[in-house]
């Protein structure tokens, strides 16, 4: 995972491990340096959310699983941060929902595309899309628009974690159903998603997989019920309220101790 020694009893263990995974991703040539800035921004929101999966995110994760399972052609988009943080977990989610994996980069270079595809194969992926680059998302200029025609180009449901707001908006306007994972409930990406998951990707992806496994034999009516019961506006509002209320005590000090202890419990 990382070759940096972090004591497991450190109160901010998960956060530090995540940070080192991004660093390792940069060293391996799969994550861009801008990825560090995105990570820093995400960390700040995660800190305010208490570094846990809030109930509205749990509902979004279940709705996302139901959407992926009921889709004709689901695709999971993978960028440099996603590949660095959850390579094995995203491959598992693709298997659990029979979704395609597609490498999709804001700053597209063939070298980084290849490295990410190889990194995913090392973590169990059999087929990785994105390298053909023979399709386009309408409304975007240059390389930012490039996708695979038989991947994201042909998808009906797309999971776009940690996506640039401009691209998320353009993708949503094509009529595809978009699931976004983004810790900022006010970002354009979260705002343009049919299902915004306001949670750290390191918790969100395994949670969606777990829900997908639980729902794998569910009839389509039950999947539809899970999807229809999810209210995106309510979820975004709940996340904003959680951030405003914060995990700060009455004196305004962050509750630094044991922030991660209840992460599992909060998602049960
Ligand atoms: P906007 O959508 O407002 O235009 P942006 O395009 O500027 O945002 P980026 O700087 O590319 O967004 O950052 C991507 C987003 O990913 C940020 O909103 C950040 O909060 C979020 N993010 C970063 N790391 C994580 C993570 N580990 N898990 C979930 N979300 C994350």
UniProtKB/TrEMBL annotation:
Residues reported to bind ATP: 19, 41, 182-184, 188-189, 200-201
InterPro entries listed in its UniProt record: PPS/PS (IPR002855), PPS/PS_sf (IPR038138)
GO MF terms, alphabetically ordered: acid-amino acid ligase activity; ATP binding
Single GO BP term: coenzyme A biosynthetic process
Catalytic reaction equation(s): (R)-4-phosphopantoate + beta-alanine + ATP = (R)-4'-phosphopantothenate + AMP + diphosphate + H(+)
Keywords from the UniProt entry: ATP-binding, Coenzyme A biosynthesis, Ligase, Nucleotide-binding
Residues in the signal sequence: none
One family name in Pfam for this protein: PPS_PS
Pathway field: Cofactor biosynthesis; coenzyme A biosynthesis
Annotated EC: 6.3.2.36
Annotated segments matching region Disordered: 241-268
Enzyme class: ligase
Family: Belongs to the archaeal phosphopantothenate synthetase family.
Self-association state and partner proteins as the record states: Homodimer.
Record-linked NCBIfam families: phpantohe_syn_Arch (NF041123), PRK13761.1 (NF010324)
PANTHER family: 4-PHOSPHOPANTOATE--BETA-ALANINE LIGASE
Known role: Catalyzes the condensation of (R)-4-phosphopantoate and beta-alanine to 4'-phosphopantothenate in the CoA biosynthesis pathway.
This protein's name: 4-phosphopantoate--beta-alanine ligase
